[in-house]
């Protein structure tokens, strides 16, 4: 410890004597380490951080958690409430289990007691065993119990989150017993969660939890708790001690098939029997919770971690070059220390201490830099107007990662320069004064480092170009609808007591008519889904088709009469919906081009009929009255899929929360007009402005935008570092060869020849880096090919542009040293040293 303290003090003095070198080295390392730490902080928050619950490693999830919403039949990612009850009663491998609704009711509206206005609230429905199974002890009050599961609709109680308690109630301890009205039901607050608990889904933050038994009261459109085949729940369970995941998985699948057979009864259909035979429930670890954004950002974040790792390698190569250059001026110092008895190991330890001190300074600055970069990253990954509730602040894992990266950087850039600096011939150095010792090997080593930097920079530039062009290609995709001048609103009829009946249909009709009459509004409509807002997909059977015809799966949407005009979807044949398409009139549908081609080949689909397989829709037989162009439904990169549209008045399947308005003029004035018009229809109806359709489409590209932006930033940073390294090497080479250059000038060498001599060396180094970088870039491109759209990994244009950029920067980096060589005064050069 004494010698370590001595080494640290000496290192501080050495670094203080070279402030320019120290500042450049620390800033370079801060950029490399900070970039790694920032990306890791986001990766840690989304992928790695355990739930703040009791023994999270014992938790498992039925299925993968990729699906959400509801379906009917045998599903392996979502389950019915009755299925959950049977699992809880009959399983032998879990000590506890619980169920949660697979969707968060985000943006619902409730009225807190004492408040005159409705306010948005995020509501999560969970079983009574949810909090006890997780081992979450309320910070205030009590949690739900098993008694809150039965009977259905009899437990209007709520547990609120600590953050909502702090934000809405200013941590008032008298919050227990206060009430919140959601729709016609009043819920009593019985508890507050601990501050660290955010739920079980990363990226979601419920304001309050309500018993699952109150599903119908919270949202009347969700009313499937008594339906054995209404699959809408996630099931979480805690393994019994000594039970492995493999054992539990085998047991669960035997039990699940037995439960499904009991549900189906003796007269099971062939399709359901086939689905039952093929069904398999995987058990996945729930230690880190569920997360829809995990599936979206897992691969992009892993790619970005590899990118910033390469940036750090380039930064370390730069620092290594700087240390190699510095070692030339310290050769006499090191020789003198060895001459008076210092061993090589002792000197190595001293030099490595200097490198470690540099790395620690760069690491500390990098962690500070990453703290605000991480917040910007959260803003980039947030696909809505509000930031995702991700905790990207430092924790033990993040600080440990930063320390390991700092240590690795010190070893990477410090080891080789330290070994070279201590490999000296004492007699030669002491006789020469240390100024003209052999530098050939070090020159070769620095050249290798520069070539490596150029090669890595080329790989990063290629990746940045591919991802950027992918993003551009996606933004240029023909969506099939016109996103310009369309405003989106959210409406929430259940919160003010509406039910799925004729009163709700009349409400939508009045809103559409009243809003469409406003000046500046060209069209308005209500719909079940807008672009990238989930799917309603079922098989259809075409009347008159042969028995051997496959029933294709079709995407469905329920819309208002003005939907196609509002969205700008062109009509190709037939008609769109009108005022005569009422609940009492014959059921009709409009299909897209792909459905017309697949389901009605060889003729016009107008007048043909088909049926949809959906237990919720009562009238499932529809006549095709129109054909519209294909439009993107779930993502910009999807292939054309068959889709059908129905008048919402004839398909009372769900509450329709999307409201679209096509406008002309000032959008701010239109927003005010729409609010006023809706208030005239029903002043109590909540209306939430959700932005424009252009913004909504843009948010669907959040993951592609994140990786394109960051890869471009890190690619340019890598090129900048490589250029600085090349400039430093060429400048050092010119300074080392000043005497030689003076002799060349004295013997009559033309000055342009000297300029080209230096410039050629820089271009040769850059060219060698490009030669090494091409196969590496091709290999890297193949690894990310699945993330590309409209472009091949070996795109020649991208490679050419990246190569030309590096060549130009190599010329710029070599230009100043070349000009300096051309201006060398032979008299001064011959007196040099």
Give the topology, please.
Layout: H1 2-17, H2 19-48, E1 59-62, E2 71-72, H3 81-90, E3 94-101, E4 105-112, E5 119-126, H4 130-134, E6 140-141, E7 157-160, H5 162-169, E8 179-182, E9 185-192, E10 208-211, H6 215-218, E11 230-231, E12 233-239, H7 245-264, H8 270-278, E13 283-285, H9 292-329, H10 331-339, H11 344-381, H12 396-421, H13 426-432, H14 440-475, E14 486-491, H15 502-516, E15 521-527, E16 536-542, E17 553-559, H16 563-567, E18 571-574, E19 588-592, H17 593-599, E20 609-612, E21 621-628, E22 643-647, E23 658-663, H18 667-681, E24 687-692, H19 693-699, H20 702-736, H21 738-746, H22 751-783, H23 796-822, H24 826-831
Parallel strand pairs: 5-10, 7-9, 17-22, 19-21
Antiparallel strand pairs: 1-12, 1-13, 2-11, 3-12, 4-5, 4-8, 6-9, 7-10, 8-9, 14-23, 14-24, 15-23, 16-17, 16-20, 18-21, 19-22, 20-21
Helix pairs in contact: 1-11, 2-9, 2-11, 2-12, 3-7, 9-12, 9-14, 9-20, 11-12, 14-20, 14-22, 14-23, 15-18, 20-22, 20-23, 22-23
């Amino acid at each position: 410890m004494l010698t370590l303290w001595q080494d640290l003090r000496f290192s501080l003095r050495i670094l203080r004597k070279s402030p320019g070198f120290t500042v450049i080295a620390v800033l370079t390392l801060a950029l490399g380490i900070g970039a790694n730490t920032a990306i890791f902080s986001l990766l840690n928050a989304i992928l790695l951080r355990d739930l703040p619950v009791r023994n999270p490693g014992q938790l498992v999830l039925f299925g993968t958690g990729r699906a959400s919403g509801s379906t009917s039949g045998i599903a392996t990612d979502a389950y019915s409430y009755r299925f959950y009850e049977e699992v809880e009663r009959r399983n032998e491998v879990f000590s506890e289990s619980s169920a949660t609704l697979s969707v968060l009711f985000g943006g619902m509206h409730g009225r807190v007691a004492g408040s005159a206005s409705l306010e948005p609230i995020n509501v999560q429905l969970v079983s009574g065993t949810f909090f006890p199974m997780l081992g979450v002890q309320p910070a205030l009050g009590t949690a739900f119990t098993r008694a809150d599961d039965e009977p259905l609709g009899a437990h209007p109680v709520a547990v609120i989150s600590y953050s909502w308690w702090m934000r809405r109630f200013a941590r008032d301890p008298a919050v227990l017993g206060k009430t919140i009205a959601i729709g016609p039901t009043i819920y009593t607050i019985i508890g507050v969660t601990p501050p660290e608990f955010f739920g079980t889904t990363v990226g979601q933050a419920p304001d309050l939890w309500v018993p699952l038994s109150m599903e119908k009261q919270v949202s009347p459109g969700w009313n499937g708790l008594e339906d054995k085949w209404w699959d809408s729940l996630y099931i979480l369970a805690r393994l019994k001690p000594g039970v492995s995941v493999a054992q539990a998985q085998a047991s669960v699948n035997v039990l699940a098939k037995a439960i499904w057979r009991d549900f189906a009864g003796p007269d099971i259909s062939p399709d359901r029997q086939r689905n039952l035979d093929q069904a398999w429930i995987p058990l996945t670890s729930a230690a880190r919770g569920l997360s829809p954004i995990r599936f979206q950002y897992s691969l992009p974040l892993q790619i970005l971690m590899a990118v910033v790792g390469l940036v750090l390698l380039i930064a370390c190569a730069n620092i290594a070059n700087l240390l190699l250059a510095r070692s030339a001026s310290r050769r006499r110092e090191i020789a003198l220390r060895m001459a008076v008895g210092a061993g090589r190991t002792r000197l190595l330890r001293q030099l490595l201490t200097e490198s470690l001190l540099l790395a620690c300074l760069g690491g500390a600055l990098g962690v500070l830099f990453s703290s605000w970069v991480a917040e910007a990253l959260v803003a980039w990954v947030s696909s809505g107007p509000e930031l995702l509730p991700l905790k990207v602040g430092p924790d033990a894992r993040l600080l440990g990662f930063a320390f390991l990266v700092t240590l690795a950087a010190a070893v990477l850039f410090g080891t080789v320069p330290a070994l070279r600096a201590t490999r000296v011939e004492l007699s030669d150095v002491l006789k020469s004064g240390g100024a003209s010792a052999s530098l050939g090997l070090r020159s070769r080593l620095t050249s290798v480092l520069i070539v490596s930097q150029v090669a890595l920079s080329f790989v990063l530039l290629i990746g940045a170009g591919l991802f950027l062009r992918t993003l551009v290609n996606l933004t240029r995709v023909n969506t099939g609808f016109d996103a310009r001048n369309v405003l989106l609103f959210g409406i929430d009829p259940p919160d003010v007591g509406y039910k799925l009946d004729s009163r709700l249909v009349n409400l939508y009709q009045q809103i559409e008519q009243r809003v469409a009459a406003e000046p500046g509004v060209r069209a308005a409509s209500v719909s079940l889904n807008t672009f990238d807002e989930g799917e309603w997909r079922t098989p259809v059977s075409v009347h008159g088709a042969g028995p051997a015809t496959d029933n294709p799966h079709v995407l469905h949407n329920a819309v208002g009469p003005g939907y196609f005009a509002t969205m700008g979807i062109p009509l190709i044949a037939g008609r769109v919906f009108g005022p005569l398409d009422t609940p009492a009139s014959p059921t009709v549908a409009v299909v897209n081009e792909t459905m017309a081609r697949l389901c009605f080949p060889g003729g016009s689909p107008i007048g043909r009929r088909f049926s949809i397989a959906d237990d919720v829709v009562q009238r499932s037989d529809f006549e095709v009255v129109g054909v519209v162009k294909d439009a993107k439904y779930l993502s910009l990169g999807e292939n054309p899929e068959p889709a059908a549209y129905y008048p919402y008045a004839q398909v009372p399947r769900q509450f329709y929360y999307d409201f679209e308005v096509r406008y002309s003029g000032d959008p701010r004035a239109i927003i005010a007009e729409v609010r006023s018009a809706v208030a005239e229809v029903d002043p109590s109806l909540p209306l939430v402005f959700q932005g424009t359709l252009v913004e909504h489409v843009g948010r669907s590209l959040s993951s592609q935008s994140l990786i394109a932006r960051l890869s471009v930033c890190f690619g340019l940073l890598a090129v900048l570092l490589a250029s600085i390294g090349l400039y430093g090497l060429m400048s050092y080479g010119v300074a080392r060869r000043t005497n030689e250059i003076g002799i060349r000038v004295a013997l009559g060498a033309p000055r342009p020849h000297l300029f080209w001599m230096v410039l050629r060396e820089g271009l040769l180094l850059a060219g060698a880096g490009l030669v090494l970088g091409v196969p590496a870039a091709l290999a890297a491109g193949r690894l990310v090919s699945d993330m590309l759209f409209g472009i091949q990994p070996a795109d020649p244009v991208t490679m050419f542009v990246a190569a030309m950029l590096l060549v130009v920067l190599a010329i710029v980096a070599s230009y100043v040293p070349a000009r300096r060589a051309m201006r060398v005064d032979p008299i001064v050069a011959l007196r040099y040293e």
